[in-house]
Amino acid sequence: MSGYGVSLAELRRHVAARPTWRCRVCAAPWPCQPAKLGLRTEYARDRVALAIYLCVLMHDAIADRLRTHPDQVDPTGYFDRFIAWTRPWPPPAPSPPADDRPDLHQTLDTYRSQAPVSVQDSARVPPGTGGRADGAAP
């Protein structure tokens, strides 16, 4: 089972028919939703490998399309169809608006003031002192 109540065997039936790159089961542009679900399940622990695999297939799909309809190739559309959906899941939390973000210099100044040894003094700390410039035991 895929974790979604559908068997992986059922999801694996959704394969591309070349040179049209439509699903052999549902006739949707491949990868169709069931194929994406199956691929996402199969590559759950290696998103990079999934993206690389789909890059190769996207290249094949574009090459097939160039042979059959050279004037109908939309690289952005192929990227969206094959690659864009492989980005991290769940999606990362949105960044706060620019005006709500802390000032980077203020954050660094705060960090430096709270650090036991300043960044400037770290080069002068004698080895074996546990990071303390005064040589006292940590």
Largest beta-sheet characterization: 2 strands, antiparallel
Beta-strand percent range? under 5%
The number of domains is 2
DSSP strand tally: 2
Net shape = elongated
Q: If you had to describe this structure to a student in words, what would you say it looks like?
A:
The chain is mostly helical. It folds into two domains: 8-86, no CATH class; 95-138, no CATH class. Helices cover 41% and strands 3% of the residues. It contains five helices and two strands; from the N terminus they run H-E-E-H-H-H-H. The protein has helices spanning 8-12, 33-42, 47-68, 75-82, 104-114; strands at 16-17, 22-23. Strands 1-2 form a two-stranded antiparallel ribbon. Helix 3 (47-68) runs antiparallel to helix 4 (75-82). The chain is elongated. The termini are far apart. Residues 118-123 have low confidence and may be disordered.
Task: Give a summary of the structure in a few sentences.
The protein is mainly alpha-helical. It has helices at residues 8-12, 33-42, 47-68, 75-82, 104-114, and strands spanning 16-17, 22-23. Helix 3 runs antiparallel to helix 4.
